Amino acid sequence: MSQNYTGSNSPLITTEPYKEFPANRYVESVSDSRQLDELQNNGEIQPFLNDETAPTLSVADAIAQMLVNLGVGYAFGVAGGAMASLWGALSNSSIKVLNFRHEAGAAFAATEAYFANNRPAVVFTTAGPGITNALTGLFAARGEGAKVILLSACTSAPQRGRWAIQETSTYTLPSGGIFTPGALFNYAITIESAAQLPQIFRKLALAMAQPGGFVAHLSIPTSVQTSLFENIALPQLDVTPFPMTASKEAIAKSVELLSSGPFAIWVGFGARDAAEEILELAEKTGAAVMCSPRAKGIFPEDHPQFVGVTGLGGHASVLTYMEQQPPLRTLVLGTRLGEPTSFWSSALVPKGGFVHVDIDPEVPGVAYQHVETFGVRSDIKAFVEELLQQLPDAPDSPMPLPRPEQKAIEPAPDVDYPVRPEVLMAAIQKIIVEDTDAVVMAECGNSFTWSTHFLQFSEANRYRVSTGVGAMGHAVTGVLGAALANNSKAVGIVGDGAMLMNNEISTAVKYKIPAIWIVLNDARYNMCHQGMKILGLKGADATIPPTNFAMIARGMGAEAIVVVRESDIEAALEQAIASTVPFLIDVVIDADRPAPSGARNKSLAAQGIKSSSAKNPAKQVSFPMV
Q1: Structural domains for the chain
Q2: N or C: which end of the chain has fewer CB within 10 A?
Q3: Whether residue 626 has pLDDT greater than 60
């Protein structure tokens, strides 16, 4: 058997991919192997035995084995009749199939499973609304840089345009962007024939071996799923992961620019595989280090050269550093410098501009279009390794740098109710971050800002937030994918609004996934409530009827507890960590504590984005804000 790797954590690609399936499986007119067995036992059909002309594999089976060979370990989705054959094939492969309650939650979970184990994940949906329900989660997968493959059913060709059940065709859905490559999918195709599979397999295998994210959509008509895959061989591929390295000229120019004066390092999520090299580079050169919200922990936040997190939920210490000890240039590693990371603030621009390294050549120079930027297309790890060989060492006694400062938390009053969010974060830091290896995820909104600002991580891949799409429900459901793929606890810090929108407690209970939800329960969409109040915009209602999430979770089979007093937080967290089943902590928080959102409005105002109010044209127009 010929064997080749698609990646460091990917199973083998082989030209003998069908050994896991029954040798004489006949699936042209039945959709599930269990159904086949039942029909055979009843004598309604006869299996092919020792017949060289007998069909041995369906398209659905071939696709499932193709995914196994690509390294897929998990498939998340919601089944339906139009994809029964595909569902059956996945379920009878080595892929673990998890049936979720909503397709968007399945896509969020698949995204986080990828980041947890660096293996591509599958989302499966039936036709029509199954596809459209999944699109938000897949949009997030593309924005986050995950490797995810959507398998969907669609209406068979003879039935298109005839009002089929959940018809999925160009009569009912736009083809561009959903069934073709574009902003949502890197690759998309409708499979109309088994003969297409070898070329599709080749494209996917090559894409999975490349750095960066890749989101694909394979749409398989119901009739094609059961068609025969015979006398067709999947291609033998010698696919190994390859780093995208910068040219010698680009390295030399980078060394020249960074050697001409003090420089800072701005770390992004795209640098997560180069944590050791970045630490070595910082200590070799004495460079100050800051990071985007998604990059927390790639550079240890307790290191004396770390000056803070930038952007949403970030630290004022970064601006203090830029004001008091400004670098000549900043080396940007794997971040797009988008609004959640930079607010596009001119205060973060050094005099000499940026040396910006990214695997996407379209990234450097976009966020700060008028700033001198030397763009380098390269894998971050490979680039930093080159710098380590060529940059000189820093002076032995660098100046002390500003550090992220947290305000001291005053002791609780006699009645420690409701819970202050910063007190909750301190307890999470102590019990979860420092005493366990659990992945921590923060939902968008105030959960994001409280967590990003107050929690500190000293290692990569412990903290996950979404700054691109920022969809509600991402962490609430994504925490299942992280816990499953890590085979360990994962914690979602979420708001009550997101928990009401899309949770997968029932799914976690079914599959015994060790997820923990910490719900910031304030009976509001509080980022909206606080933002509108500060903007002085009255009449908009962002309140939510009070909800007992612990009661809901217990009703679904999970363990849960309500916390209303600060003195009970640590015990509740310890109980959640010790639990062997999914666990929810419903924390009644003080809704009036202002979230540390960062000065987004100051950035908007500086860019000339003003209120349309005639009475106060300088009034800021958006939130989040301080």
Answers
A1: 3-225 (3.40.50.970), 248-390 (3.40.50.1220), 421-588 (3.40.50.970)
A2: N
A3: no
